[in-house]
């Protein structure tokens, strides 16, 4: 009996990095479990590429609602089998001002999506992968999680939490055969970043980022910044004394807030 093609489970698969990762895995002959709230967008994308029906399944879920994404994970196991790779990619990025009451709710939504959603994405697969003795759990962090940026507090905090959470989970699963991989993108050309009003050094096309990320995932890297140049920049920024770092970022344009795009 022929062995089934490997399966990857990707959240946030309807656009940006998630869609680019799906395209790369598809070209490599993998089956896809595509997860997002916008089911029609995923279906249109797959049909436009002429993806065969046996190569993918779509799961409509909201990662900010734990029961929703957990149900999607169990549904995937029932319909397609236990994935070889699970990529918790879904995330949102909105600027915030702590002086604005509405932005406290924005922060709660960001943390629910970027952090609770990541843990809930992994939840259905951890025990089954441990029993099997293999698998990759991939958390998409960000260089923004390495040092806080003005006006970007919620997003930076959420991505710092992704990095720490994945590090904790990696230690818990050590020796089980299940690898936890943290990928920290720098700037990637997606609908999310096109709204930014500040310089984005070393900006990568989404497909280039995806190809490099998949190489790191297959290698079982514990932590990888893509592109590598941003890894150097991040380490240098981390090493700066606070007074120098604060002065360097003084006056930097801030991320758009949800309220009237300011």
Principal-axis shape equals globular
Determine the CATH topology: Rossmann fold
Fraction in helix: 40-55%
**CATH class, please?**
Alpha Beta
CATH superfamily: NAD(P)-binding Rossmann-like Domain
Spans of 5+ residues with little confidence (pLDDT < 50)? Answer: none
Strand order of the largest sheet: 3-2-1-4-5-6-9
Mean pLDDT: 90
CATH architecture classification = 3-Layer(aba) Sandwich
Task: Determine the strand fraction and express it as a percent band.
Answer: 15-25%
Main sheet specs? 7 strands, parallel
Order of helices and strands: EHEHEHEHEHEEEHEHH
Total helices: the number is: 8
Structural class: alpha/beta
Topology:
Blueprint: E1 7-11, H1 16-27, E2 31-36, H2 39-48, E3 56-60, H3 66-80, E4 85-88, H4 101-132, E5 135-140, H5 153-172, E6 178-185, E7 188-189, E8 204-205, H6 206-219, E9 223-226, H7 228-239, H8 242-249
Parallel strand pairs: 1-2, 1-4, 2-3, 4-5, 5-6, 6-9, 7-8
Helix pairs in contact: 1-6, 3-4, 4-5
